[in-house]
Amino acid sequence: MTITHHLDEATLMGLSAGALPEALASVAACHLDVCPSCRKQLGELDMLGGALLEHIDPQPLSDGLSERMASYFRDDNVRSFPLHRTRGRHNNGKTRGEVPKPLQRFIGTSLDDLQWQWLAPGIRQYAIKLPDESRGSLRLLRIKAGMRIPEHGHGGSELTLILRGAYHDRFGRFGPGDVADLDEDAEHEPRVDKDGECICLVATEEAARFKGLLSRVLQPLTGI
Ligand SMILES: [Zn+2]
């Protein structure tokens, strides 16, 4: 697997600080699983963050913060964010096949065995349920060979990891393992390669934003 497109530094910093919405952190974890270069960069940011913390004088916690932190670290809660916690560097085995290891416990190991739902002409989806209170939405999209998705923006951060096939847009060509780390200003018009379908894992910052994206993408296709 040759990876050309990586997580950007802001995303890695957000991940290191634990500030990335869970859906985006999940896609980042799946990329980290296959990308030694981003794992190295994340390790450096973690060390930098740790070093900075050591030089900050302790301050009393504000009202309620210690309780909120205690509740976050309660076992139940931590268990409910397994994708986020793995972050690619704690897992022992390597990803085999098309499904990244952090994702396997949620969808198994075969993309073809999933119950795909029709979403639009040429596009099917499989929604991945995140634990309640998770921020953002996570889904797989399966787009037919040669399909062009009309020019659109996103209205929020979006992370896309390619699992099968490839597409290209003005940012380059994206194949398996590549991640498209788009901020809300980025507009693009992706076109799937002619010789095969493309399956990608997509996280959007807020669930509602996917609907906005969807309507913008589908409007030219369906005339709604
Ligand atoms: Zn990378």
From TrEMBL:
InterPro entries linked to this entry: Anti-sigma_ChrR, Anti_sigma_zinc_sf, ChrR-like_cupin_dom, RmlC-like_jellyroll, RmlC_Cupin_sf
Signal peptide: none
Domain ChrR-like cupin positions: 109-204
Pfam assignment, any one: Cupin_7
Superkingdom of origin organism: Bacteria
Entry protein name: ChrR-like anti-ECFsigma factor
Organism: Dichotomicrobium thermohalophilum
Lineage of source species: Bacteria, Pseudomonadati, Pseudomonadota, Alphaproteobacteria, Hyphomicrobiales
